[in-house]
Amino acid sequence: MTIHGSNRWYFVAALLAANLFIWSAVFAEESGGALTVAFLDVGQGDAIFIESPTGKQVLVDGGPGRALFAPLSEMMPFYDRSIDVVIATHPDADHIGGLPEVLRRYDIDFFLDPGVSSDTGVYQALLRARDESDAEYIVARRGMEIALGDGAVLQILFPDRDMEGADTNDASIVAKLIYGGTSFLLTGDSPQKVEKYLAMRDGKKLDVDVLKAGHHGSKTSTSDIFLGYTSPASVVLSVGAENRYGHPHAEVVARLTEFGAKILRTDEDGTVIMKSDGETIFAGDIF
Fold this sequence. Notes:
- 31% of the residues lie in helices and 26% in strands.
- The protein is of the alpha/beta class.
- The termini are far apart.
């Protein structure tokens, strides 16, 4: 292409403006200084995107399928084609449906799951995508910590044993995200028996600012004892509008209301974004 006369300067100016925009975006991404936790609106399913103050990224679950990619693209700049860690809390379709495509589209450093298998087609697709990717596979176990930079850390609280052959919900990875004096508890579809076990084992260490309610607000999760120990100021319900399961259950909503927790729902609020500076958690945009 040949550029003549004054048009050349317009062309150069346009290039400089575009370049400045791109590098400004990169600089903003690298110097944000806050922990971002986004509970993505993927319909009836779970997907949580985490970005640390140093830019490390974690995706916890991938929703039921392609519904993941619109909200995920809102959180990641167009030029970003990598995610540091992907976690599948358990192999149910509404948590892993989008992950095979994530493994194909992005460069993943580490892939974690609880070590429980399933005979479903979506799980077999995930195994194929995992094996074809360059991600290092790790079976999550209690005591593991993922350092995300600037003191942000993701601690695995459960499972603490071999979960092969267990019910998939019972095997759900439970993880606590800590940044400074702020914290989030991510529970997958953990049922009340796991909640009570963790309450007995960890007690007040479960205390967090934000709780992602187990199993989309099903009455099989979010027990009184668990709420008592976690004592969250806010609870996020990842749930699809007018879903056929009746989630969240009225008993759970009433329980959360009684505890005085602020209830945030992806079916009503869309993607719920929270940011922490290590001292305070701020509500981000909801879209």
